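Objective 1.3, modelling of assemblies. Example input:
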Amino acid sequence: QSLFSDVQVAPKDPILGITEAFLADQNSEKMNLGVGAYRDDDCKPVVLNVVREAESRIAGSNFMEYLPIGGMKAFSDLSVKLAFGEDALPIQEGRVAAVQSLSGTGSCRLMAEFMHRYLPQAKIWIPKPTWSNHHNIWKDAQVQQELYRYYKPESRGLDQEGLLEDLSKGSPGDVVLLHACAHNPTGVDPTPQQWKEISKLMKEKQLFPFFDMAYQGFASGDCTRDAQAIRVFLEDGHLMGCSQSYAKNMGLYGQRIGCFSIITDSADEAKAVESQMKAIARPMYSNPPLHGALLVKEILGNEALKQQWYEEVRGMAERIISMRALLRQHLEDLKNPLPWKHVTEQIGMFCFSGISPEQVDRLAQDYSIYMTRNGRISMAGVTTKNVSRLAEALHKVTT
Ligand code: PLP
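Predicted structure (tokens):
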């Protein structure tokens, strides 16, 4: 009998399981469409040129000290401007509390813990479906979760009616988790008009928006356009929380760099809220890592580098958008009887294809094409070289 004999093996993370199966596969034409990280047209990971340039500028820095608990202030000041807009009123009025976080996951974790401590009555409303880690994060923070309808399988689009109906059941002070753009896993975003309706309802019901923005710029190629939901809510005068990640849009996945912010009612409130964000971070990890903050500060703080970044993030988004068009074209050329319009209507890294778990299994067994069992295709793994093979395999398993 050891101290650990009662510890059971934890269930495998669904995505890691796919990668294992992919790695074990000997087929030279195998495809990994599970992973949520950008690849170029040769299926290779990418380091942005602007990141290389920023790295060369910070190289040799003799600053290796700890950052403060809340991270690098110059970084979070630039970051909230990217999310809320250069001239956003709450920024001008000093009403934004913000700390550097351990990427998007870390921001969500801080928000969940903040709710646990300071909003003990509040529930978190989570879209169905969502990025699966959202459930783990709020569960670990012991915050009660409610689901709201989001995706309509019949139309492979948004269930706006169901969404509004479910959110109207929220209690004042509840928090609603919204994917700011490029909803994961569905790739379905509300239109500007639908965002206005959601914002209006949430204002009436006194629900607090928390935007998870893991893909700013990566969805449409335009950072301002991808923040339009946030701008709609700002216009309506909402206070709100925001999680930003630089994993996808700057390709800084492993650097764990993001920003967690809350727009409060006054400068005094912001001061108090920010001090409590730090009080939560201190016993968790003491202070965030340095390198990513230096890189992002260098890029966002320099007009020329920022423009270069805008161009590179647009390039990544455009490659994915063009792969969507090619995939749909190939499926339609094959005269596949199913509708594939959603492939080009959905946005961001993922395509929620609508195929069944059994069809996903057949793709893996017969064609060495791997994806999550909910039929989510990571478009980042699709290239001009493998798109026709993917379309043919999809055609075969669906007819
Ligand atoms: N939120 C959503 C919706 C995501 O899809 C992801 C990553 O896949 C994250 C947050 C967190 O990513 P990271 O912690 O790498 O920034």
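The radius of gyration is 21 Å.
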